[in-house]
Amino acid sequence: GESVGLHLPTLSVQEGDNSIINCAYSNSASDYFIWYKQESGKGPQFIIDIRSNMDKRQGQRVTVLLNKTVKHLSLQIAATQPGDSAVYFCAAIIYNFNKFYFGSGTKLNVKP
Amino acid sequence: DTAVSQTPKYLVTQMGNDKSIKCEQNLGHDTMYWYKQDSKKFLKIMFSYNNKELIINETVPNRFSPKSPDKAHLNLHINSLELGDSAVYFCASSPLSTSYEQYFGPGTRLTVT
Q: How many Å apart are CA B56 and CA B42, to the nearest integer?
């Protein structure tokens, strides 16, 4: 099986600070990872993905870091803005078997 | 110009009833999904279709039956609804079955009383 968890259910940061959201997964067969953002009342939105042959990937203001040794994934958001307030999910996928496992989410609160 | 749309947005029904949720995407994607999100925000994949062919069928009760009349539509029919079926159901689509960059619909909040 697979469990995907997030270390902190709620994270509060000041506007302009950097945010780090963490995720742990248990199945070492997971080879593809995605971060999603879900605003209140809306569906999840794809943010960034990373394959297991990489340890870092950058997007616009976001960076995902993957540490396969400890089965840990993080999402870093630079210069956090009020519009970043949402619930963030990580998903671990076993690509060839189409197996998806989602974490329960971390709520990010950005204080003005 | 909605990319992924679902109807209805809210659905309140009694136990034992049969209901359907519809999903349509106008992105030209080949793959569509159904997810269930419970009250604790836990998201779980239920089904996936690629060009009308079922490719993911997770362990869900057989009271849930997906139907894909064409690659732009994926409907979810639920028989004999139970209290535990109450959740938000999301439809999503992606360009290919090998791409997990998914676009989600706004969700259907199902309440079973």
A: 19
| Residue B45 near chain A (CB below 8 Å) | yes
Nearest CB to B105 within list A43, A89, A100: A43
CB A1 within 8 A of CB A65: no
- At A14-43, the pLDDT tens digits run 999 999 999 999 888 999 999 999 999 899
| Residue-wise burial string across A71-102, b where 16 or more C-beta atoms lie within 10 A, e elsewhere | bebbbbbeebeeebbbbbbbbbbbeeebbbbb
Q: Give the pLDDT confidence score for residue B55 in this predicted structure.
A: 80
Chain A environment of B103 (Cβ under 8 Å): 46
For residue A22, the tally of other CB atoms under 10 A from its CB is: 17
Report chain A residues whose CB lies below 8 A from the CB of B90: 43-44
Does B103 lie at the interface with A, CB-CB under 8 angstroms?
A: yes
pLDDT tens profile B68-97: 999 899 999 999 999 999 999 999 999 876
Helix (H) or strand (E) holding A110: strand A106-111
Look up residue B64 and give its two tokens.
Answer: 């849930």
What is the DSSP code (8-state) at residue A112? -
Model confidence pLDDT, tens digit, residues A36-80: 999 998 999 999 999 999 999 999 999 999 999 999 999 999 999
Kindly provide the residue ranges of all beta strands, DSSP E only, lying in B1-113, ordered along the sequence: 4-7, 10-13, 19-25, 31-37, 43-50, 53-57, 64-70, 73-78, 87-94, 103-104, 108-112
